[in-house]
Each structure stands twice: as C-alpha cells, then as structure tokens.
Amino acid sequence: VAFSPDGRLLATGSFDKAIYIWDIARQQIVHGYRGTRVGASAADRT
Q1: Mean pLDDT by 10 residues, the chain (46 residues)
Q2: Cα distance between residue 29 and residue 31, in whole Å
Q3: What is the DSSP string of the chain?
C-alpha cells in the first residue's frame, strides 16, 4: 500500500497478482493491473 505524494491516489497490491490505483476522493479504481506477468513486492514514491 502506498499513497501518492499529493495524497489523492492509493496503490494497493495483493498476492493474487493484482495491483490497483484508487482515487481516494471518488472511492473508485482508476487503473487496474492483473495477470501472471504483473506483480509488485514494494512501492516507493519518487
């Protein structure tokens, strides 16, 4: 789980190889990545 620097977006990931980017204000997923080639073990904002 990681927040964008401005706090408007939230990135979540899980062991089922799904990564979602959430718009906090709208409480909606704005991007989703899922599949065997997608995975993440850490998130870091730059």
Answers
A1: 94 86 97 73 58
A2: 6
A3: -EE-TTSSEEEEE-TTSEEEEEETTTTEEEEEEESTT---S-----
